[in-house]
Design a protein that fits this description.
The complex is a heterodimer of chains A (111) and B (110).
Chain A: E1 3-6, E2 10-14, E3 19-26, E4 32-38, E5 45-51, E6 56-59, E7 62-67, E8 72-77, E9 86-93, E10 99-101, E11 105-110
Parallel strand pairs in A: 2-11
Antiparallel strand pairs in A: 1-3, 3-8, 4-5, 4-9, 6-7, 7-8, 9-10, 9-11
Chain B: E1 4-7, E2 10-13, E3 19-25, E4 32-37, E5 44-51, E6 54-57, E7 64-66, E8 76-78, E9 87-94, E10 99-101, E11 105-109
Parallel strand pairs in B: 2-11
Antiparallel strand pairs in B: 1-3, 3-8, 4-5, 4-9, 5-6, 7-8, 9-10, 9-11
Classes of the chains: A mainly beta (111), B mainly beta (110).
């Protein structure tokens, strides 16, 4: 069956460290993958898109990798700050531009 | 500012009632989507519309209906046939780079 798994429901790290979130998928062949940030009671906000032929994408303190052989994407936040605390969702772009979302990982950055 | 406006933010529904969730966008996007979010689950697609006067069922369309009479508007009706409607509902539109989401409507059955 098709699945999208984000490593853990919750991740706690210390301010200044690098947060690494994982998105694994099964039985999908995504053309691209996106990461979103969601704050409590709000809609997700788009962060980054990476295509199947790209290995890595960066935006300020964010870095995303995409390994279509491992069927995995890693999302890194370097020099993390308490303001980075949120839930992060990965989403796969599949056929007909359809999107499939993971359940998200709730990140807490402690001062 | 361009964006998506969902209303109301909170909605309470009695058993057997139909309720309609509003979604308006001023981004000039053709494609619009309705998702449902439940704790511990990924967003699940209810309905989507690629163009005015056309819409398609998503994965969990049963008990829901939509219309797309204008480009800017994509309302979702939760009918009495939806047996477990308590959830957070998100409307989105599609840009080249990703989806733009509204702030959501939290629907509770009382």
């Amino acid at each position: 069956s098709q699945k999208i798994e984000q490593n853990s429901e919750a991740l706690n790290i210390q301010e200044g460290k690098t947060a690494t979130l994982t998105c694994n998928y099964t039985n999908y062949s995504p053309a691209y993958l996106q990461w979103y940030r969601q704050d409590p009671g709000r809609g997700p906000v788009f962060l980054l898109l990476i295509r199947e032929n790209e290995k890595e994408k960066r935006k300020e303190r964010l870095k995303v990798t995409f390994d279509t052989t491992l069927k995995q994407s890693l999302f890194h936040i370097t020099a993390s700050q308490p303001a980075d605390s949120a839930t992060y969702l990965c989403a796969l772009g599949v056929r007909n531009n359809d999107m499939r979302f993971g359940a998200g990982t709730r990140l807490t950055v402690k001062p | 500012d361009g964006g998506i406006t969902q209303s109301p933010k909170y909605l309470f529904r009695k058993e057997g009632q139909n309720v309609t969730l509003s979604c308006e966008q001023n981004l000039n996007h053709d494609a619009m989507y309705w998702y449902r979010q439940d704790p511990g689950q990924g967003l699940r697609l209810i309905y989507y519309s690629q163009i005015v006067n056309d819409f398609q069922k998503g994965d969990i369309a049963e008990g829901y209906s939509v219309s797309r009479e204008k480009k800017e508007s994509f309302p979702l009706t939760v009918t009495s046939a939806q047996k477990n409607p308590t959830a957070f509902y998100l409307c989105a539109s599609k840009a080249n780079y990703g989806y733009t989401f509204g702030s959501g409507t939290r629907l509770t059955v009382v």
